[in-house]
Structure formats: structure tokens, C-alpha cells
Design a protein that fits this description.
The chain is of the alpha/beta class. Helices cover 41% and strands 21% of the residues. It has an eight-stranded mixed β-barrel, surrounded by five helices. The protein has a six-stranded antiparallel sheet with strand order 3-2-1-6-5-4. The chain is elongated, with a radius of gyration of 30 Å. Bound molecules: guanosine-5'-monophosphate (G) and manganese (II) ion.
Length: 403
């Protein structure tokens, strides 16, 4: 769980594909122009260098993209510190160059290297090329060419570095919250409208760590940095652990996004509780382009007895298409439709229509966000079987629910 989070700090910068292609093209052109054997871009990573892009004349390259070599060995560190010049036409003539093991082992006869400096002065890494044989004819103009392209590379990479810095800050913030025990899970009762007896609970995430903001903003940020699904499944697992003694036949409803459903080990996260008492609430914040993969991911879970609910029906992206294409067992009537339903004939008409739809299709309806008796009675009289909301119970720790 959350493996991405624990390794974020030592990961190389994420370079976007079109920038990586640009770098490859520049390396290739420069290497041919200067008649060198190898050209590369290396990123400094703590005490290591990682070779990001390598262009090489022969197939048995002494280096390949992805190789990680300590900064302590090789030329880069010495060039950046000024101990070695950026242009070395003949490595045999410099004692420090001769003392570097790679000079003999690769071998390196001539070496050109410029630091890739970002706007803030930070050094991303180096842009280098070398030839196996000494190249006494190399001069200032060749170095200037490398420098010029070094600036082009730095400008290209800078945009990705900026995104990467923000990404790391988000990961740090989220992993910090997780380390402090977030997200915590609270449980909101779902009750029968006739008689108000408890039928299940919806598991909801809560963050106690700052910045203080609603859980959906935490999830949105986590999805932006590709750990949204891990966070969702962490909540699911915590919820299931907390519910191990939930009396039968009470159900637990767990919020899962379509993205998580199609890309993460949902079945594994939901194991450990009676599948027939699990409801998967499909929560959507972006339009769904293709329902095929979602239906495919749901099929084995449904086969084990889990039920599917469409969350927030009638709001935003949770459209009629969801209902038609996913054929849910449960439709959750959005809070925005519940609000003032007793006073607003238009909302009442919508509730009545959805009620009729549910009866004809044998779907269970749950009204969300019921806050007062007026809303409660109106929905009950329109044939809604179930509801939740502050009137019927706040989201709360499970023990308090049975207290
Ligand atoms: O999208 P979803 O329906 O899963 O989100 C439910 C959210 O709505 C939870 O954060 C919960 O705390 C909140 N909520 C639950 N009941 C009520 C209610 O009666 N009124 C309001 N305003 N919010 C509610
Ligand atoms: Mn929900």
C-alpha cells in the first residue's frame, strides 16, 4: 500500500515524453556534429547520477538510459566544481582525468561537459559527450555549441522540474497526513424511511491534518499526483477493519472512483468482509468516456454478491448515462435534489420520477442529505425506501452509532 508515497523523495524528475524526445534529438545531432561516441544527459540525484538520455554510436554502449552511477566516480562532479575544465580534448594530459577509473575502463579520450542550470541556479545535472580517442582539434567553438544547447535543454527541463516540485510537495503533504493516521473513517447511518431502522452505514473519510479542507479536495490532489486510488483503497481497508463486528445484516457502503475500479486492486482491499453486505458507491468527478472497462471491473465483484450504487445521482457528472449503462442496484439521490424538496415542486417532480423509475427497474433508492422532517416526510411519501442525512444521523465513529 502507498508504495509511491514512501519513495517519492529519491525519484528522478518526471520528464514529459515530448521533452524527452527533444533531448534525444539534440543529443543525437550534437554527437554526430562533434564526431563523438557517446552523448548523454545525467540528472543528479542525492549522491548519484542517473543517465536520463543516452545517444551512442554502437550497440554495445558503455552506458544506457536509466543507469545509476555514484557522483563520486566519473567526470560530472569535477566539472561542476571546477576541478576539471568543461572541455578536455585529451584526457591523458590531465592528472585528475587520468585518475578517474572510467578514463581507462570505457575508455574516455576526450570529454565535453556543461552543467544544466535551472532558473533558480540549481543544477539539474550535466549535458556531456565523449569520444574514446583523444580529439586535439576540439576547441572553444565546440564547447560554445554544447553550452548553447545546454541552455535549450535547461529551458525545456525547467517546466517539468516545476511540475515535479509541486508533485513532490503534494506527495509530502499527503504522506505526512497518512503518517499521522489520516484519513480517519466515520460512518453515517443509512435508515429505512418507514420506521427509521438502521440498514447500513456509509464510510466517509475525514482528514484531521492541516491544511483544513473537505476530504474531496484531499482526494482530488491525491489523484493529481497519481496516488488517489491508493488513498481510496486505504480508506476502504480502514473501513472494513473497523466494521469487522458490524451486526448482520447491516451493510457498508464504500466510495470508489471509476479510475480506482479499473486500475487498482479493489477486490483485495474489500476482502475480509461479507461481500453480500458491501455496497460499492461509484463516485464520479470527471465524465466517463467508456463504460466498458468499468462494467468489466464490476462483474467479478458483483458475481461475489457485492452491490453497486450510483452516488450523487442528479448532480454534476453523475448523469442518466451512469444509471442506464451501469444498471446499479442502488441509486443515491443527490443532496442538492433533497434540499427543500418539500417546498419545491420541481424537485418533488424529479424525486417522483426517479421513484417511479426505481420501482419499474427494481432499483433501490437512497435519498442523501435529509436535514429536516419536511424533506424526510416528502421523500418517504414519494416512495423512497431509504435515506441518510443529518436528521437521521451524522457521520460519526462506529462505536458512537451504537451507543
Ligand atoms: O458524495 P457523498 O454523497 O459520498 O458525500 C457525502 C458528504 O456529505 C459527506 O462528506 C457527508 O459528511 C456530507 N453529508 C452527509 N449528510 C449530510 C447532510 O444531511 N447535510 C449536508 N450538508 N451534508 C451531509
Ligand atoms: Mn457516497
Amino acid at each position: 500500500m502507498l508504495t509511491h508515497v514512501s519513495h517519492w523523495s529519491l525519484a528522478p524528475t518526471v520528464i514529459s515524453p515530448h521533452i524527452a524526445e527533444n533531448i534525444d534529438r539534440i543529443l543525437h545531432a550534437i554527437r554526430l556534429h562533434l564526431h563523438m561516441d557517446v552523448a548523454f544527459v545525467a540528472e543528479f540525484l542525492g549522491s548519484n547520477r542517473i543517465f536520463r538520455n543516452v545517444d551512442c554510436a554502437d550497440r554495445n554502449a558503455p552506458l544506457k538510459a536509466g543507469d545509476i552511477i555514484p557522483l563520486a566516480s566519473g567526470y560530472c562532479r569535477h566539472v561542476v566544481s571546477g576541478a576539471l575544465p568543461e572541455l578536455i580534448a585529451d584526457t591523458r594530459k590531465l592528472e585528475l582525468a587520468r585518475s578517474i577509473p572510467e578514463t581507462a575502463s570505457i575508455p574516455i579520450g576526450a570529454h565535453l561537459s556543461v552543467p544544466i542550470k535551472l532558473e533558480d541556479g540549481r543544477i539539474f545535472g550535466t549535458f556531456c559527450c565523449f569520444s574514446h580517442r583523444p580529439r586535439p582539434e576540439l576547441g572553444q567553438r565546440d564547447l560554445d555549441l554544447l553550452r548553447t544547447f545546454g541552455h535549450v535543454l535547461a529551458a525545456d527541463i525547467a517546466a517539468d522540474v516545476k511540475v515535479d516540485i509541486e508533485r513532490r510537495a503534494s506527495l509530502k503533504k499527503i504522506s505526512g497526513a497518512i503518517a499521522k493516521g489520516d484519513p480517519q473513517v466515520v460512518f453515517q447511518p443509512i435508515r429505512q424511511l418507514a420506521g427509521r431502522s438502521l440498514v447500513g452505514v456509509e464510510c466517509l473519510a475525514r482528514f484531521t491534518t492541516g491544511p483544513h479542507r473537505p476530504p474531496d479536495q484531499w482526494f482530488a490532489e491525491a489523484h493529481e499526483v497519481a496516488i488517489g486510488s491508493e488513498l481510496e483503497l486505504l480508506v476502504a481497508q480502514k473501513a472494513i477493519n473497523a466494521c469487522s463486528n458490524l451486526p448482520a445484516p447491516l451493510s457498508i457502503s464504500i466510495n470508489v472512483s471509476p479510475d480506482t475500479l479499473t486500475s487498482a486492486p479493489v477486490a483485495e482491499a474489500l476482502s475480509g468482509f461479507h461481500p453480500g453486505r458491501i455496497v460499492i458507491e461509484i463516485t464520479e468527478h470527471v465524465p466517463i468516456a467508456d463504460y466498458g472497462p468499468i462494467l468489466q471491473a464490476l462483474a467479478p465483484l458483483r458475481a461475489r454478491g457485492m452491490r453497486v450504487a450510483i452516488d450523487d445521482a442528479g448532480a454534476g457528472y453523475s448523469s442518466m448515462r451512469h444509471i442506464l449503462d451501469m444498471q446499479p442496484d442502488i441509486i443515491k439521490f443527490d443532496i442538492s435534489l433533497t434540499r427543500d424538496v418539500h417546498r419545491d415542486p420541481v424537485r418533488r417532480a424529479m424525486a417522483a420520477a426517479l421513484g417511479e423509475f426505481a420501482r419499474r427497474t427494481n432499483t433501490v433508492l437512497v435519498a442523501e442529505g435529509i436535514e429536516n422532517e419536511g424533506e424526510f416526510e416528502t421523500l418517504r411519501d414519494l416512495g423512497f425506501q431509504y435515506g441518510q442525512g443529518y436528521l437521521l444521523g451524522r457521520p460519526q465513529p462506529l462505536q458512537e452509532l451504537f451507543y
